[in-house]
Amino acid sequence: MEILSEIADGQRRVHEMQHKISLLPSSLSMPPDYTRMIEWANSELANLEQRVNMAGIQERLQKEGLFPDPESDPLFEDAAMNDYPQPDGSA
Question: How confident is the model over 31-51, as a mean pLDDT?
Fold first, then answer.
């Protein structure tokens, strides 16, 4: 499933970025460009973390209409009634 692959890839990227950022030297006397690069990397990491955490995934599922609640989705009932055998054996 594509969305699960995207989530797993995002989580791998989070771990890679966390590791790479942790290896960058940091001190109060860094050049301004270097400081901005670290700030940018931390910002990108925060954005990626938000997309792959539970709240971010839930937001995407709702936005894209993936895995709707069967109790509130009329299409779910129609599909269930038409595509699968019913308990009484009818289709």
Answer: 94
